[in-house]
Amino acid sequence: MENTTRRLPHKLDFIFRPRSVAVIGATPRKGSIGREILHNLITYEFNGKLFPVNPNHSVIHSIKAYSTILDVPDLVDLAVIVVPRELVLGVVDQCGEKGVKGLVVITAGFKEVGPTGSRLEQQVADRVNHWGMRMIGPNCFGIINSHPDIRLDATFSKVYPKQGKIGFLSQSGALGEAILAQAGEMNLGLSMFASIGNKANISGNDLLEYWKDDPDVEIILMYLENFGNPRHFVSIAREVTKKKPIVAVKSGTTLKGAAAASSHTGSLAGAEVAVDALFEQTGVLRVSSIEELFDVASALARMPVPKGNRVSIVTNAGGPGILATDALISLGMEMPEYSESTKEKIRPNMPPDAPINNPLDLVAGAGPREFKIALEAGIQDDNFDSMLSIFVPPITVDQMKIAEAIVDVKKRFTRPLYACFMGVSWYSQGFELLKENNVPAYIFPESIARSIAKIDKYRRWRDRQEGTLPNFAVDRASVRRIVDESIAAKRQEIIGEQAMALLQAYGVPVASYRYASSAEEAVIAADQVGYPVVLKINTPRILHKTEFGAVKIDLRSGSDVAASWKAMHDRVTAEFGESEPFSVVIQKMLTEGVETAVGMSTDPAFGPLLMFGLGGIYIEIMKDVSFRVNPVTDIDAEEMIESCKGYRLLTGFRGSEPVDLALLKESILRLSMLVTDFEELVEFDVNPFIIASDRGNSAAVDARFIVRLP
Fold it and tell me: 594-707 domain in CATH 3.30.470.20?
C-alpha cells in the first residue's frame, strides 16, 4: 500500500492498515452491531478482503460466511469481535491459533461493569499477550482509516468520515457517533479514528507513538477520561508536540484527594492540577469542551500556525469587533496598528474622516468590494501574523458575496485568515462556502479568539527550547541518613533542624538559626544570630504555626525575646499540658525580599507534583501557585515562576529591586532533584522561601517534609 511504503512497518499496521478483515459475530439482522460493522466496511469500500464469521449463517450481506475464524482459507490481519462476552475468550484463542495479528473487541461487559468483568478482561488481555497480538478494546466503538488505499470503517457509526489530516482518539465509545457527526458538520476530514475502550492492551500512549511519525496524521485530537501511565505520556507527548499539535478534552478527575493532605502544597494540589501540569509540560492544548476541541481543530486543519500573536480585525460592526478585541487581548494576543502604507491603501475605501484603527470598522453598509480591499491590504501588512474577518449580514448585503471575497483573499495569500459570520446558521450559504473552501468559520468572535490563542500557545511551545535536567553536586549521604532515621523511628514528619539539614545538603540556602529550650537560651541564641530575630515554636504537633500564633517577628532585644518565649510556653502548656516538649527556633529575620514557597505533593497516578508560588500566609489565601510534574527542567522552572500572577513582585515593582531569579530557579531545580533522588519523600513545604535582590538575604526560613512509611 502506498502509505506503508513511506514509513517503517509497525505492529499496529495490522489494525489500521489491514489487508484482510474478519468480522466475528457478523449477522444479517439489520440494526445489530455485527451487521452494521460489516455494512460499513462494504459501504466505505474497504480495499481488502472481508470475511464474515458466524456459525449460524453461510452467507451474510451477499458474502460467504464462515463458522469460525479457523475456517477462513486466507490469512487474516484484523479480526473485529462482536460476540457475547462469555464467548470472547474462546474467540481470542481461535484468532491466535489462526495467526491473526490485530483485534478490535467491540463487545462490552468487562471491567466497566464490575469485578467479574474485570477478571474476564484480564484473562482476555493475558491471552492476547500470549499469542503476541495487539488489541483495541474491549468495550469500544471501533476504528477508521480514511486513506484511499485502505478505506477502513470498522465502526457501527451511521456517519462516514471525510478524508483529512486529523487523528482522533476517544476513550468514550458513546461519543464516537457524535464526534464523527460533528466532524462531518464542520467539513473536517479525519485520517484515523480510534475508540480505545477499556485499554486492556493498546492505550492512548500506544496510539501517540503510532501517529508520531505517520505522515497521514498532522493533528491529533483526544477525548480522555483517565491516564493509564501519565509518566510515559510525558515523554511521548513532548516528542509528538514538537512535530504536530495535540488538542485534548480531559473529563473526570485524578485520584488525588486534596482534603486528606496535611501540607499547604497538598491542599492546593486539587483534582485537575496534575492534569493541567502534565499538559503544560508536554505542549498538549487542553480545551474545556468538545465544541472548543473542534473550534481549535478547524483552525489548525485549515490554516498554518501563525508566526506570532499579532492579529488584525476587519468588521462591518463595531460591537463584535470590540468583543473580539477584548477576548484576544485578555488571552495574551496583541493587536498593533496598521502600518502607514496599509492605511493609505485602505483610506480611499473608507468614509471621509473615518478612523483607520485595529479593529477596522467598515460600517454596516460595507459590501464585498470594501471587505476585499481591506482584507487584501491587511493580510499583507507585516505588522500582523493573522487576520480575522467579522461580518454581520445586513439586509442590503449578500452574505454569499462577502464569503466569496474572503475565499478569494484566502486563496491568494498564505497568512492565516479566519472568518466570523454572526447572525447566520451553520447551514447558511455563505457559511457553507467558507467551510467548503477551508476557511475556519465561526458564529461568535470569542470562539475564534480562544482558538487563535490556543494555537499561539502551541506555537510558543513548539518553538521553545527543550530544557535540561541539571545535575548538581549534593550531599546525598546526609539526606539518606536523615530519611532512614525517620523511617526507622516511624516518624512521618521531618521538621526543624533535620528539615533544614535536608535543604542544606542539596544546596538550598537556609536562614541562620539556633534552638532554645529556655528563655535564657533564647536570648543567647538571639545574640548569636543577630537582631532583629524571629522566634518560632519548635513543636511537631503544631503544623501551621501562624494560625496557632506560634511565630513572633521583628524581635529587637533580649527582653522582647524572653517575653515572647514565656508567652508561647504558656500557650502550649495551656493547649497540650505540662508534659508537652517545648522549644523554640531563633532565626535571623530577613528584612528584604519577597516571600515565596516551594512545595511538593504526590499524586497516586501522576507522581510528585512540584509547586511554586507566593509564600507566607498568602499561599492558601491567594492560591497564586503553579504546578509541574516532577522532574522539572530549567525551562519548566522558569515557566513556573513566570506563570504566577505575583511574578511582577519578583521583577521589581514600583521601584523595588528585582530579586535574584537565577537563585530562585536554581533552588527549585535542586528541590526537584531531591524529590527525584528520594522517592520516600511524598510531601514537603519550604515556606517561606525569601528571595531578595541580594543573594545573601535570600534563604529558606521554614521547611517540613513528609516521608512514606512502610
Answer: yes
